[in-house]
Amino acid sequence: MAKRSASVRREPSRDDETFDVPAAVLCACCGQPDCAGCSAASDEGSGVVAIVPWERPSGGVWSRLWATSRATTLGAETFFATIPDGALPAAMRFALLAETLAILSMIAALLPLVALALPSLTLELARNPAARASALQWLAIGVPAVTVWMVLAHTLHGAALDLGARRQGARPERRRALRFGLYACGWDLMAGPLGALAMLITGGTKGAEQVLSASLRVPGKASMALLLGVYALHPDAAERARRAGSIAALALTIASGFAAIALAVAFS
User: Fold this and answer.
1) Alpha-carbon distance 72 to 53, whole Å?
2) Which of 5, 75, 96, 162 is least buried, going by the fewest C-beta atoms within 10 A?
3) pTM confidence score
């Protein structure tokens, strides 16, 4: 009688096949992958929203602001190609804070240069309390006004990109386009003196050079990422939408700037 050998089933090894690694699923509330579930998901909070550091409930304000600003600048293509839908107030708070810090850091960096270039004005401000009060009053009005104008300019850019994409046949994504514009304010923080200083401290001269170089190219790269990723446009159509949106946003920004100057002159 022939001897029958027992068949032994061999488990596949790593050499036999390639194993897929499943994507991580993050909790909608805490953003942790191992959470059993803190709260029910909603339109204002989903597992995808956890990719925006600013919208995570954990972490300090500066750490979330800085992480998001870095992502919008150094990782612009990935960030804006997958920017999730969500509530606008959180994005608006980020935009106002980022622009305020960017403008204040720019003023702080320019003050020594102005003092050297205009010594007589500097002496007048030092000696005359009324002149100092007037200068501080203009700063108190000017900084918030410029902040709001910059946020408006970025928001108009996002809205113009949405209009350009819809003219190329894409489905409307108005809220995501507005969130694009609001989170794009992170560019200004990273490109300003405060962003350069923070990168210099954390990454040395190489890090500062990297962020300054990226800041010059980020608007075009981020816009294309949004149009290709969110609107799923063909590259040629995305380029046409980007060009039309940029022109429209520039025209609206200039018009709003002149209107703001006219109002300031009228009420001064």
Assistant:
1) 11
2) 5
3) 0.77
